[in-house]
Write a structure and sequence with these properties.
Elements (H helix, E strand, L loop, with lengths): L1 H10 L2 H27 L2 E2 L7 E2 L3 H8 L2 H33 L5 H13 L2 H11 L6 H8 L13 H29 L3 H9 L4 H12 L1 H16 L3 H6 L21 H10 L5 H33 L1
Antiparallel strand pairs: 1-2
Pfam families: BPD_transp_1
InterPro entries: ABC_transporter_permease, MetI-like, MetI-like_sf
Membrane topology: Multi-pass membrane protein
Length: 310
């Protein structure tokens, strides 16, 4: 009996052995860089010279002597605050409309999902070309229709730059949100809708009283993940001002740094000519704390509303 127990215990070691390659890769490429960058945030180091311990000075400088960081944080929150509700709302609407669509349903789903799998570089070039002052199609259409008397400098306007970035985010992720909502709607029981139809409920009542409440958990998931992704926004504004309209003349942060995000700020400070890896690490971990706080707030708000509805 003891020999059998020993063989069983020896056999139970194999799951742990099979997990070792993943655990080793995770520690080497994920956990170790995270811990090392946190340690690095307490040093002044450019990647070449000797590291100098400065304690909390990087964090103090970040919040008291670097107004550009606070501006980048405000920009990020504004862009996230506008893009998230619009994308969630439109994703739900498109999913609901396509859910009952018969002919051509797969085609419309595929077309809406294409932007999500498009490379960010291509998206940056598309939008920077569309809103180009001289050759952009947006100006050509508006001038041709008589809405504008002359071409408008879209990428040189602080307000227009923010609006364009929000449009980019919504256009890119709408297909993903639509797909998640469609999957959630597919799992709903049709008997609930049949019972509501028998009671004389309209399609609007079914949507507001049945579909939306049943999609509560999906909506919470999308909102929280949108907050996390929105606070890490980098590709859309960076590529917009590095694309067609700004080839060879890339503009950091847009006009007046109006679309400078926190991750873009981190990228500029950590990997520019005057590299400050310690300071960049302080930015990264400050953003990490803000992501946790905003995620908790977003979860509490959406979860609270869902509980009240129930």
């Amino acid at each position: 009996m003891n020999g059998k127990n020993k063989r069983m215990q020896k056999g139970n070691q194999w799951p742990y052995i099979f997990c070792l390659p993943f655990l080793g890769a995770y520690f080497l490429f994920n956990l170790f860089p995270m811990l090392y960058s946190f340690q690095l945030s307490f040093f002044d180091w450019n990647g070449v010279k000797t590291k100098m311990f400065v304690g909390l000075q990087n964090y103090i400088t970040l919040f008291t002597k670097d107004p550009l960081f606070l501006k980048s944080l405000v920009n990020t929150v504004i862009l996230m605050a506008f893009s998230t509700p619009i994308t969630v709302f439109l994703g739900m609407m498109v999913a609901y409309l396509l859910f009952d669509t018969g002919r051509g349903k797969r085609f419309y789903q595929t077309v809406n999902f294409f932007p999500y799998i498009t490379t960010p570089v291509a998206i940056g070039f598309i939008f920077s070309y569309l809103f180009d002052w001289q050759s952009g199609y947006i100006n050509k259409i508006l001038v041709g229709a008589g809405v504008l008397n002359e071409p408008f400098y879209w990428l040189q306007s602080e307000v227009a730059s923010k609006v364009i970035v929000v449009i980019m985010v919504v256009w890119r992720y709408l297909g993903y949100y639509m797909t998640i909502y469609l999957a959630a709607m597919t799992s709903m029981s049709p008997e609930v809708y049949e019972a509501a139809a028998v009671d004389g409920a309209t399609r609007f009542n079914m949507f507001t009283r049945i579909t939306v409440p049943m999609l509560k958990n999906t909506t919470i998931f999308l909102i929280v993940t949108s907050i996390i992704g929105g606070l890490q926004m980098f590709e859309e504004p960076k590529l917009l001002f590095s694309g067609w309209a700004t080839i060879g003349n890339g503009q950091t942060g847009g006009p007046g740094n109006t679309v400078l995000t926190t991750v873009w700020k981190f990228y500029n400070d950590a990997f520019n000519m005057d590299s400050r890896l310690g300071y960049g690490s302080a930015i990264a971990y400050s953003l990490f704390v803000f992501i946790i706080l905003f995620s908790i707030i977003g979860f509490k708000i959406t979860k609270g509303r869902g509980s009240d509805d129930e």
